[in-house]
Write a structure and sequence with these properties.
Largest sheet: 5 strands, mixed
Number of domains: 2
Structural class: alpha+beta
Number of strands: 5
Shape: rod-shaped
Strand content: 5-15%
Order of helices and strands: HHHHEEHHEHEHE
C-alpha cells in the first residue's frame, strides 16, 4: 500500500523520491539495530530459562502420573457405585428385621456420594492446574502447594474407599444372616399355623359331635359343611326376631356344650362362634324390618345375645346378617324357601 502511494506520488511529482529513499534506509538501520539487541537479549533469556524448563518437565511428569492415579480412582468409584446399586436393590426386599441393614446401606450411599464430591473437587483443581500450566508454562509456589494438596486428597480418598469396602462386606454378611433368620421364622410360622388349624379342627369336630348328641333325632337341624344349621322356624316366628321358648331351649343346650368344650381349648387359639342369619328371597317391608338384611341381622343378634346371657363370653361371639343373598337352594318352592330361612353356627378362628 505504501508502495502504491509512492507510485502515485512519483507519477504526480518526481521530486519526492530521494527523500523517501533516505527515510527507508534510516528505518532499515534502526530495525537491524533492534534485531541485534533482541538476539542478544534472547540469548541471555534462554540461558536463564533453561533451569525453569527442566523444572517444568519434572512437573509435567508428576502431573501425568497424578492423572493416571486419578483415572484408577475413578474406575474404583464406578465399581463401588455398581456394588452399591446391587446392595440397595437387595436391601429393598428385606422384611422389617433387615431395616438396620437397609439404613446402613443408605448411610454408605451418602458416604459414597460425599467421596465422589471430593473426587470432583480434586478433578476441578487438577483441571485448573493444567490450564495454568498450558497458558503460563511457569512454575510457582502456589502450583506446588496445589499439587501437594491434591496428593493428600488422593491418599485420603484411598483410605475412605478401603473403609467403604469393609463396611459393604460387613453389610452383605449381615444381609445373608437376616435372610436365613427370616426363612427359619417363616418355616416355624407355617408349622405353628398348621398345628393351630389342626387343633381348631379337632375342637370343632368335638363340638359338632356333642351337638349331634344333644340335638339328635331333629330333622329341622342339619350340618352343612363346617356349619350347624337351624331352620328359622325352630327359633323364630314368621317375620319376627324374638326367640321362641323351644328355640331358647335348643340354644341353651348348645351353649352348655360349647362352654364345656371351650374349657379344653388352649388360650392361644383365638376362636369365635359366628352366628349367620339368612332369609328366603321373598321381600319383607315392615316398620321394624325394612329389608331382609335387617331381619337376618336382628335374628343373628338375638341368638348372640341369648348365648352371651347363657355364659359364653361376648368376645367369643360374632353376628352377621346375609339376607337372601346366600341361598342353599335356588329353586322357587316352599321347601326351598324353608331351607333358605336359617341360622348358621360356625366355630372358627378370629
Amino acid at each position: 500500500m505504501a508502495y502504491r502511494r509512492y507510485a502515485r506520488g512519483h507519477q504526480d511529482n518526481q521530486d519526492y523520491w530521494p527523500g523517501f529513499v533516505d527515510a527507508l534506509a534510516t528505518l532499515l538501520l534502526v530495525i537491524i539495530f533492534l534485531l541485534t539487541i533482541f538476539m542478544l537479549a534472547q540469548f541471555y533469556l534462554r540461558t536463564e530459562l533453561t533451569g525453569r524448563d527442566e523444572a517444568m518437565i519434572r512437573l509435567e511428569s508428576q502431573l501425568a502420573e497424578l492423572s493416571t492415579l486419578l483415572s484408577l480412582e475413578r474406575q474404583t468409584t464406578e465399581d463401588l457405585r455398581g456394588e452399591m446399586s446391587a446392595l440397595t436393590a437387595t436391601l429393598a426386599t428385606e422384611t422389617s428385621r433387615a431395616a438396620d441393614a437397609e439404613g446402613e446401606g443408605l448411610r454408605l450411599s451418602a458416604m459414597l456420594a460425599s467421596i465422589e464430591g471430593g473426587a470432583t473437587d480434586t478433578n476441578a483443581r487438577m483441571q485448573s492446574l493444567e490450564d495454568e500450566l498450558t497458558s503460563e508454562r511457569e512454575i510457582n509456589a502456589e502450583g506446588a502447594a496445589l499439587l501437594a494438596l491434591a496428593n493428600q486428597q488422593i491418599a485420603a480418598l484411598r483410605l475412605q474407599m478401603a473403609s467403604l469396602q469393609e463396611a459393604l462386606e460387613a453389610s452383605e454378611a449381615r444381609d445373608a444372616e437376616n435372610h436365613a433368620v427370616i426363612a427359619n421364622l417363616g418355616q416355624r410360622l407355617n408349622a405353628a399355623l398348621a398345628q393351630r388349624v389342626q387343633e381348631l379342627a379337632r375342637y370343632r369336630s368335638e363340638f359338632f359331635g356333642r351337638l349331634r348328641e344333644v340335638l339328635q333325632g331333629r330333622d329341622d337341624i342339619e350340618i352343612v359343611g363346617d356349619r350347624f344349621v337351624f331352620q328359622s322356624e325352630v327359633l323364630f316366628a314368621s317375620g319376627s326376631a324374638e326367640l321362641s321358648v323351644e328355640g331358647q331351649g335348643d340354644l341353651r343346650r348348645l351353649a352348655d356344650a360349647l362352654i364345656e368344650i371351650s374349657s379344653t381349648i388352649p388360650p392361644e387359639i383365638n376362636w369365635v362362634l359366628r352366628v349367620d342369619g339368612h332369609t328366603d328371597v321373598r321381600p319383607i317391608a315392615t316398620a321394624e324390618f325394612p329389608t331382609n338384611w335387617h331381619l337376618s341381622a336382628a335374628r343373628a343378634i338375638a341368638v348372640v345375645r341369648y348365648l352371651n346371657a347363657s355364659g359364653i363370653p361376648p368376645e367369643r361371639l360374632v353376628a352377621a346378617g346375609f339376607g337372601e343373598f346366600q341361598p342353599l337352594d335356588t329353586e322357587e318352592s316352599n321347601a326351598a324357601y324353608r331351607r333358605n330361612r336359617r341360622i348358621e353356627l360356625k366355630l372358627t378362628e378370629r
